[in-house]
Amino acid sequence: MFIAQVITLYPEMFPGPLGHSIAGRALREGRWRCDAIQMRDFATDRHRSVDDTPAGGGAGMVLRADVVARAVDHAAAAAPDLPVLALTPRGRPLSQARVRALAAGPGATLLCGRFEGFDQRLFEARAIEEVSIGDYILSGGEMGALVLLDACVRLLPGVMGAASSGDEESFESGLLEYPHYTRPAEWEGRTIPEVLRSGDHARIAAWRTSMAETDTRLRRPDLWERHEDARVPRPLARGDE
Ligand code: SAH
């Protein structure tokens, strides 16, 4: 079973939306587990404080390294095999490849930030992978943890209806997926591309590949460049080793 441990100030946010639909069914079937851990339980002062003002001044509050580390150590003792990931906009952007690797493993302990984030010494003192879910700022790591878990859970064995629908998806090949159509065959005067109704599977496959490539090139030049770099070994430029 895939084990998710989530360290958070808002344990009632879990499993939240992951209690529904595909992830919810998988949860009830025992394919994964979601254990929320209240970070505040690891505070030691009378006010159970988890944060303090930023060293050097400035707005907001910072999560204390000592309190958070106690929570992380508790989670690690409960499930020593799980990698620990902190949600932070300073982290490495989450990728489908990382999601796939996590889903193939025993689970993950996820650390959700709040306020201005974590005292940096936490990441020096503990083996914690910093991950971001994108270049925008959330009010807390909980939504990020839900995103990461949703992406992992759908890949667990037996979770997705059509087993094949994992492989063709956007990003799996380094490209966006081709566009989809369904009935009605005509809607507001618009028809479905003729090739998709031809029944010619080779032509359909070729059309889909070509659409995936065109759309990736136009919509995501960054992805397209990486895809091309991986495919066509570039001749060594002068000065390169
Ligand atoms: N001051 C920080 C932002 C703090 S937002 C900065 O500018 O970098 C508060 C918390 O929300 C963070 O600690 C983190 O856990 C979460 N969070 C915000 N944006 C995120 C993102 N893009 N990816 C992952 N977690 C994020």
UniProtKB/TrEMBL annotation:
Cellular location(s): Cytoplasm
GO cellular component: cytosol
Catalytic activity, reaction form: guanosine(37) in tRNA + S-adenosyl-L-methionine = N(1)-methylguanosine(37) in tRNA + S-adenosyl-L-homocysteine + H(+)
A family per Pfam: tRNA_m1G_MT
Reported function: Specifically methylates guanosine-37 in various tRNAs.
Coiled coil: none
Residue stretches making up the tRNA methyltransferase TRMD/TRM10-type domain: 5-225
Protein name listed in UniProt: tRNA (guanine-N(1)-)-methyltransferase
Binding residues annotated for S-adenosyl-L-methionine, in chain numbering: 113, 133-138
GO biological process, one term: tRNA N1-guanine methylation
Broad class of the protein's primary localization: cytoplasm
InterPro entries to which the protein is assigned, alphabetical: Alpha/beta_knot_MTases, tRNA_m1G_MeTrfase_C_sf, tRNA_m1G_MeTrfase_TrmD, tRNA_m1G_MTases_N, tRNA_MeTrfase_TRMD/TRM10
Domain of life: Bacteria
Subunit structure: Homodimer.
Family: Belongs to the RNA methyltransferase TrmD family.
Organism of this sequence: Sphingomonas abaci
A single MF term (Gene Ontology): tRNA (guanine(37)-N1)-methyltransferase activity
Broad class of enzyme this protein falls into: transferase
Key word Methyltransferase present: yes
PANTHER family documented for this protein: TRNA (GUANINE-N(1)-)-METHYLTRANSFERASE
UniProt EC number: 2.1.1.228
Keywords in alphabetical order: Cytoplasm, Methyltransferase, S-adenosyl-L-methionine, Transferase, tRNA processing
Ribonucleoprotein listed as a keyword: no
